[in-house]
Design brief:
single chain, two-stranded antiparallel sheet, 14 helices, 42% helix, 13% strand
């Protein structure tokens, strides 16, 4: 299968698609690591900007569960703070919770404060906003992820304010929660989270919170795109607390681990590479490290391109790949975010997905790519 693709100089060049790699759903559960895919949402192309196609959105979650992965629901991959409002998020959590119970799927859900207006807010209002969302998550039967809050980042005067907010929340959660450290490359509004722009000081602050409430902390998701810093933090966690890597650049080595431990996973990249990720983790289950490396290796260039700066627009590439792989029938996004990445970026993403063997139907992917390029004004 060949397709003419635009080059940086404005010319078109023939590109020949390769053979897809086949990764059937595993027969057994993944056992060596806890792994969640942060799932995207599918917009209703005929609805208002924040209306979802519920059938396609929930079908994609069933796809992730079928591969033995957990679903990280209502996280930043689902466009929290980038088009998805709290009313729709609440319905998403409730509907996904019902689907998870029906199929026995694992699910964590993001609890945030995005029902508040932007900007500073009294700490009491921040806590109350978190509590409202925690009630919805616990009713859905999910493990809560206490998402980094823009309102808290705008309001806190130092580490003590973070300690107060998280302390108030952790003492009341029904089951141990996951904390959430999202770096400013994912959301510039979170610069200085945990009370300091110095990442070493911030790490000390969050470690103190975890130590103080260890019985109520399942772990912490770290998305700083800094493997060395993640490993250093992982080695200092109290016994029983997990480090869920959110490093979409270095996930193979962080999940593999070293003599001192390993990271579990809560990753946006696991959304588009779910079949490969599940196969790699099953290889890890059996101790087949060469197979683990062989499967993950071609996904890393794809991930590094997908999450390239400005990193917070990675959701556009995730949905583009979902369309190319027939998980949805259109390339439209909540809030019109499908326009956030330029044509050359998505053309290269197409090539990298093909090189990784992640386009299961090359003919369909090429046909959709041609149609999209024609709409962009790129014609042979």
């Amino acid at each position: 299968m060949k397709i003419d693709l635009p080059r940086p100089d404005g010319t078109l060049a023939a590109y020949t698609l390769g053979e897809p790699r086949t990764y059937p759903p595993p027969e057994n559960s993944i056992t060596s690591r806890v792994a969640y895919a942060a799932a995207h949402v599918v917009a209703d192309p005929l609805g208002e900007p924040d209306v979802l196609d519920w059938d396609a959105t929930l079908a994609f979650r069933r796809h992730l569960w079928s591969y033995g992965l957990g679903v990280a629901e209502a996280m930043d991959t689902a466009q929290r703070g980038m088009g998805l409002d709290w009313a729709t998020t609440r319905e998403l959590i409730t509907r996904s919770g019902a689907e998870a119970r029906a199929c026995g799927g694992r699910m964590v859900c993001g609890a945030g404060t995005d029902q508040l207006p932007p900007g500073p807010a009294p700490l009491g209002r921040v806590i109350a906003a978190y509590e409202e969302q925690l009630d919805v998550i616990e009713a859905a039967g999910a493990v809560p992820v206490l998402m980094a809050s823009r309102q808290l980042a705008a309001s806190a005067t130092g580490p003590d304010d973070y300690a107060e907010v998280y302390g108030r929340l952790l003492v009341q959660v029904a089951r141990p929660a996951v904390l959430h450290w999202l770096g400013p490359m994912f959301d510039p509004a979170l610069t200085g989270y945990w009370g300091s722009a110095d990442l070493d000081a911030a790490a000390e602050n969050v470690l103190a919170i975890i130590a103080r409430h260890a019985a109520k902390v399942d772990g912490i998701k770290v998305s700083l795109l800094d493997a060395e810093r993640e490993v250093a933090l992982r080695r200092r966690l109290p016994a029983g607390a997990r480090l869920y890597t959110g490093d979409d650049f270095d996930y193979p080595e962080l999940i593999r681990g070293d003599a001192f431990g390993y990271s579990d996973a809560l990753l946006g990249i696991f959304d588009p590479i779910a079949p490969a990720a599940a196969a790699a983790l099953r290889a890890l289950d059996t101790g087949d490290l060469p197979r683990y490396q062989e499967i993950f290796a071609p996904t890393v260039p794809l991930a590094r391109h997908l999450f390239a700066a400005p990193t917070y627009y990675y959701k556009t590439g995730v949905v583009f790949l979902a369309w190319l792989t027939a998980h949805q029938e259109h390339f439209r996004m909540v809030g019109g975010l499908e326009t956030a990445r330029p044509v050359p970026h998505l053309v290269r993403l197409f090539e990298l997905a093909d090189e990784a063997g992640l386009l299961p139907d090359p003919d369909l992917a090429a046909a959709r790519m041609r149609a999209w390029l024609a709409v962009q004004g790129v014609t042979a």
